[in-house]
Amino acid sequence: MHPLAKLDHRHLWHPFTQMRDWLKHEPIVIKSGQGAVLRDVKGREYLDANASIWTNLHGHNHPKINAAIRRQLTLIAHSSALGFANEPASLLAARLVKKASPPSRLQPKLNKVFFSDNGSTAMEVALKLAYEHAQRSGRSNRPRFLTIDGSYHGDTMGAASLGQIGLFQNSFAGLRFKTDKVMAPYCYRCPFNRAKPERADAREYRKCNWECTDKVEHAFAAQKNRGNPYAAMVVEPLIQGAAGMIPQPKGWLRRVSAIARNHGAQIIADEVMTGFGRTGTFFASHSEGVQPDFLCLAKGITGGYLPMAATLTTQAVFDSFLGEYAEFKTFFHGHSFTGNQLGAAAALASLDVLESSASIKARRSLEQSLRTELESLWPLQHVGDIRQVGLIAGIELVRNWRKREPFDLRERVGIRVCEAMARRGVLTRPIGNVVVLMPPYCASATQVRRMVSALREAVSEVLSNPAA
Ligand code: PMP
């Protein structure tokens, strides 16, 4: 075993990992990366098929981001935002505000930016701000939040309380505060109808009657009747990530946002995964004409280089924290690395690349390549559903596609398929039985073909799966 792998085995505890399984195999130790390729200490090369857990945008070792970080390093790596401003953080805040400007003038403008370190902290900030704002604006003295089933917003306890994935939360149930949830628009497993025929010979389906958004209306009405209207609704716009890459049907986001607004509730958009062009538009909320009151960003904000996050909000929320010092209306929250210069410099360079016409064109063409390649998976009998939004794809593996029968999680089908993909030089991670493909924007059509081929071969190997 490589000496670094030995050290890892001796001392490291990996996230979301059953360490007994981890210790059975020599881990892949990543040494370097270039574009969409990762290289390990033994010189083997792999495609980074989930963009290093959904963070990387333009590829590894990008010359422009590297140069921006180096330039910043000659000045300073970090100084505290507690008490001082700094150049890259100010510039980045202004750029983010500009990108987040509303699709319609009637909607609230996001013009204040609170920086933090990761997706969970971006959500934590939104949650605390919405909580206090609801109290100070007189909406509720016991603010309560409505969330979507299967949602994931991070692992700090506030963010985890907003999340609704039982498996991740059961052990911490006693630590979570209570939130409510409504059903997710999971069309593939819709309890009301077979909303979409996945293949030509799929069973009968019926027209969608938007029962799922009716449930949202009912939840808002019921909570109002209890005398404590919801402070805010929390959504992952367009596609829920850790729920299993579950896209929302066109119009869902617009409808539920209108319901929330009609009830006077705020909207917290978790764009930790969907932001920065992942779904096609710059921010996913904008593709449905929705302007949230809180926009939470992380992962891709620095192009996937450094831990940084931002929570954007409105003047109205900001104003509710203004007062004389002695009133103690200050937002008592912050982190040591808030507004870090290296992260902000990387983010500014990433935005430059993202806005270039070459990147916009490449993303469009990559989205099409991914769509074309994914088509080739339909004939596999254990491929139940293929879901793609922009440059995010989830392939749901099932025991029987006609009945949409899932595999028991204990069978570790997703994990085994991803292990088989790794043996073919393609790295990604499953969400239960859903295999995720999320290439960096710099991936070539050939690289995307290799990612999908590896998945096809891996499914056949693991499930001894002849074409149906
Ligand atoms: N929100 C969403 C939608 C996410 O996908 C994630 C991470 N997968 C988070 C929040 C939490 O981000 P982090 O892991 O950076 O804390």
Topology:
Layout (H helix, E strand, L loop, with lengths): L2 H9 L7 H4 L7 E5 L2 E4 L4 E4 L2 H4 L8 H11 L13 H13 L10 E7 L2 H18 L8 E4 L8 H6 L3 H4 L10 E3 L28 H15 L6 E4 L3 E2 L5 E2 L4 H11 L3 E5 L23 E4 L11 E6 H5 L21 H15 L1 H19 L7 E7 L2 E9 L4 E2 L6 H11 L2 E2 L2 E2 L2 E4 L7 H18 L6
Parallel strand pairs: 3-16, 5-6, 5-7, 7-10, 10-11
Antiparallel strand pairs: 1-2, 2-3, 4-12, 8-9, 11-12, 13-14, 14-15, 14-18, 17-18
What does this structure look like?
With 468 residues, this protein is α/β, with parallel strands linked by helices. It folds into 2 domains: 3-61 and 358-463, Aspartate Aminotransferase, domain 1, CATH 3.90.1150; 76-355, Aspartate Aminotransferase, domain 2. The protein contains 15 helices and 18 strands. The chain has helices at 3-11, 19-22, 51-54, 63-73, 87-99, 119-136, 157-162, 166-169, 211-225, 252-262, 315-319, 341-355, 357-375, 413-423, 445-462; strands at residues 30-34, 37-40, 45-48, 110-116, 145-148, 180-182, 232-235, 239-240, 246-247, 266-270, 294-297, 309-314, 383-389, 392-400, 405-406, 426-427, 430-431, 434-437. Strand 17 and strand 18 form a beta hairpin. The chain binds 4'-deoxy-4'-aminopyridoxal-5'-phosphate (PMP). Residues 118-120, 123, 152-154, 236, 241-242, 270, 272-273, 298 line the site of 4'-deoxy-4'-aminopyridoxal-5'-phosphate.
